[in-house]
Amino acid sequence: MEIRKLSLKQGAEQAEGVSVVIDVFRAFSCEPLMFHLGAAEILLEADVEKCLALQRATNGILVGEKDELPIPGFHLTNSPYLILQKGKAFFQKRTVIHRTTSGVTGALIALERSSEVLLGSFMTARAIAGYLKRLDPPLVSIVAMGIRSQSKAPEDEACAGYIESLLTGKPFDMAQSLGVILAHETAQKFLRGDKPYLPKEDVAISLQRDLFDFVLRAARHGEHVKAEIVSPKDGQP
């Protein structure tokens, strides 16, 4: 298994083989939580107007952001904490339409050239590594999407390093990584607590490792791309 570590929009464009697209703050920390709370399906869509049209067609829940800002007409911004606050009663058996600047957009780009696209965060990292070991593809592209897909973010780079360590046995120091992550503006903009759409709680939630034993995969279903749960045991949705 050859492992290529890539970053940002350019990395998503270069991703081949089985790709793992990582967005810790916050897209692919949100999606496992929404499934955990009972969402029936999650549709990935980058275009805001198409998201609004999908909502009208499905009576679904709109979750997302554009350049970190809440999107008018959306039910929720891209926040793990706010998602948990809504709870199961809000998400149970509902369709979610998810739009984000880095993670969702990066996954859709990577899907153009990749045989398979997995949606990565610390929450599902060990499950992803286990799935990849069983699949044993010749090439894995790990893409850390970073800040608005334009500059590197330490939490995404660290998650890429953690998954690589699980696959190869290469040493990974989570304690050192936490120090770097928490000192960086990507975490500090939450921890200052001065913007309600960037809850400080999102940092603590998103840095939880291996909360779930399932893998999320982006897959085409007709005209749409869905995030789907894949059994880590057999690779089937």
Give descriptors for this structure.
putative 2-phosphosulfolactate phosphatase; globular; ten-stranded mixed beta sheet; 11 helices; 237 residues
The portion of residues forming beta strands comes to 15-25%
Task: List segments where confidence is low: pLDDT < 50 over at least 5 consecutive residues.
Answer: none
CATH topology: putative 2-phosphosulfolactate phosphatase
What is the CATH class name?
A: Alpha Beta
User: Distance between the terminal alpha carbons, to the nearest Å?
Assistant: 23 Å
Strand and helix order: EHEHEHEEHHEHEHEHHHHEE
Structural class: alpha/beta
Radius of gyration computed on alpha carbons: 16 Å
Task: Write a structural description.
The chain has one domain (2-228): putative 2-phosphosulfolactate phosphatase. It has eleven helices and ten strands. The chain has helices spanning 8-14, 27-36, 48-58, 80-86, 88-91, 103-110, 125-135, 154-168, 174-183, 185-191, 201-206, and strands at 2-7, 17-22, 41-44, 61-66, 69-70, 95-99, 114-120, 139-144, 215-221, 224-230. The two termini are 23 Å apart. The model has no long low-confidence stretch (mean pLDDT 96).
List the helices and strands and how they pair.
Layout lengths: L1 E6 H7 L2 E6 L4 H10 L4 E4 L3 H11 L2 E6 L2 E2 L9 H7 L1 H4 L3 E5 L3 H8 L3 E7 L4 H11 L3 E6 L9 H15 L5 H10 L1 H7 L9 H6 L8 E7 L2 E7 L7
Parallel strand pairs: 1-8, 2-7, 2-8, 3-6, 4-6
Antiparallel strand pairs: 3-10, 4-5, 7-9, 9-10
Helix pairs in contact: 1-6, 7-8, 8-9
